[in-house]
C-alpha cells in the first residue's frame, strides 16, 4: 500500500496509506483532509479537488489528460504541477508522493 502525504494550506501534514487503483481525491476525502471539496465526486466536472504535485514527483505522476487540463482552467492559482486529485490513480510508483492543497478551491 503506497503512502501519500497531503499538506494542507496551513502546513498541517496528513500521512495516508492508500489502496492501489484509488484516487488521491478518494483518499483525501476518506481521511478528512481539509481543502479537498470534491463537489463532483470525482467525475472531472469541477475543480474542487485541485492539488499541487511536489516538483520531485511531477514526472512520475505525469501530465493531465486534455479533459482535466480544461477543468484546471476553473481552478484557483494553477501552477505547472497542478492536478485534479480525482484524476490521479494511486499505484506503487507513487509511494511517498507529496501533494499540497491550495489556499482555496475553484
UniProtKB/TrEMBL annotation:
State the source organism's domain of life. Bacteria
- Listed GO CC annotations: cytosol
What GO annotations for molecular function exist for this entry? 2 iron, 2 sulfur cluster binding; electron transfer activity; metal ion binding
The 2Fe-2S ferredoxin-type domain extends over: 2-105
What this protein needs as a cofactor is:
[2Fe-2S] cluster
Instruction: Give a yes or no for keyword Metal-binding in this entry.
Output: yes
What GO biological process terms are annotated to this protein in UniProt?
P450-containing electron transport chain
- Keyword set, alphabetical order: 2Fe-2S, Iron, Iron-sulfur, Metal-binding
What CDD domains does the annotation carry?
A: fer2 (cd00207)
Write down the InterPro entries for this protein, in alphabetical order.
Answer: 2Fe-2S_ferredoxin-like_sf, 2Fe-2S_ferredoxin-type, Adrenodoxin-like, Adrenodoxin_Fe-S_BS, Beta-grasp_dom_sf
Q: Which Gene3D superfamilies match?
A: 3.10.20.30
Family of this protein: Belongs to the adrenodoxin/putidaredoxin family.
Q: What is this protein called?
A: Ferredoxin
Native source organism of the sequence: Chelativorans sp. (strain BNC1)
Amino acid at each position: 500500500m503506497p503512502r501519500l502525504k497531503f499538506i494542507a494550506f496551513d502546513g498541517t501534514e496528513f500521512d495516508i496509506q492508500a489502496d492501489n487503483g484509488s484516487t488521491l481525491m478518494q483518499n483525501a476525502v476518506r481521511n478528512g483532509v481539509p481543502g479537498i471539496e470534491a463537489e463532483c465526486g470525482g467525475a472531472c466536472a469541477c475543480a474542487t479537488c485541485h492539488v499541487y504535485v511536489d516538483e520531485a514527483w511531477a514526472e512520475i505522476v505525469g501530465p493531465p489528460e486534455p479533459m482535466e487540463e480544461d477543468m484546471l482552467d476553473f481552478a484557483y492559482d494553477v501552477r505547472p504541477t497542478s492536478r485534479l486529485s480525482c484524476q490521479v490513480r494511486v499505484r506503487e510508483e507513487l509511494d511517498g508522493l507529496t501533494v499540497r492543497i491550495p489556499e482555496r478551491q475553484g
